[in-house]
Write a structure and sequence with these properties.
Blueprint: E1 2-11, E2 14-24, E3 29-33, H1 40-48, E4 55-60, E5 63-64, H2 70-75, E6 78-81, H3 93-103, H4 110-118, H5 120-124, H6 135-149, E7 153-157, H7 165-177, E8 184-189, E9 201-206, E10 209-214
Helix pairs in contact: 3-6, 4-6
Length: about 220
């Protein structure tokens, strides 16, 4: 499904990722664990095309992904939940979710209906402005937005950071339920305290390098 092969990336000439390689098989949930500044967010952004890689390759479903533009990657069924949520404050919840469909020129709203079934609480405050929600509720909305386009691959960057325990548990419940949908998921966090029960494999990243691939984490 997703193959990252020896990619390197620098920001303002400072090396951030150094020969990073990992593989995620179809329908599996993988953890990416590392401290703040280890390179987790940079890796997620490189997969999405927000940051260009300097060398190496990224393949998705046997296609060269590292040469595709960011919006083209979303159109391939890749959903992304950024660490800082990136909601539009004055948009309603539903408008924020639909942004991903607008960006890919998709008019099919069946995926939105599925998201509301998966997370009924989202539907209950669909008409509220994003800025009126708590941080945890905003994470749920950002996850819903990612799910609308992420029919194949879901990238979740620090979904539990700054979230109250009850909402963190709800987020983890939703992520766990995705296994039945055959979705491929990469979830990053500082440790896998929250996701330990659902991940099939854990990659550790330190100073921009993958140091451990633990296949017995689940």
């Amino acid at each position: 499904m997703l193959v990252i092969d020896n990619i390197s990336l620098s920001i303002q000439r400072v090396p951030i990722l150094r020969d990073v390689s990992l593989e995620i098989e179809t329908g599996t949930t993988c953890g990416l664990v590392g401290r703040n500044g280890a390179g987790k967010t940079t890796l997620m952004r490189s997969i999405m095309g927000i940051l260009p890689v300097e060398k190496g390759r990224i393949q998705f479903n046997h296609m060269d992904l590292h040469t595709a533009k960011a919006h083209e990657r979303a159109a391939l069924g890749i959903g992304y939940l950024p660490e800082d949520r990136r909601l539009v404050p004055h948009f309603t919840v539903e408008e924020n979710i639909l942004v991903s469909l607008w960006a890919t020129n998709t008019s099919d709203r069946s995926r939105l209906k599925w998201v509301y079934e998966l997370m009924p609480e989202i539907g209950r405050f669909a008409d509220r402005k994003a800025m009126t929600l708590s941080g945890g509720q905003q994470k749920l909305v950002a996850l819903a937005r990612a799910l609308v386009t992420g029919s194949e691959l879901l990238l979740l960057d620090e979904p539990f950071e700054g979230v109250a325990p009850a909402l963190a548990a709800r987020l983890m419940e939703v992520i766990g339920n995705l296994k039945s949908e055959k979705l491929t998921v990469l979830v990053s966090e500082s440790d896998y305290t929250h996701s330990e029960k659902v991940v099939d494999k854990v990659y550790s990243i330190e100073r921009g390098q993958i140091t451990i691939a633990n296949k017995d984490a689940a």
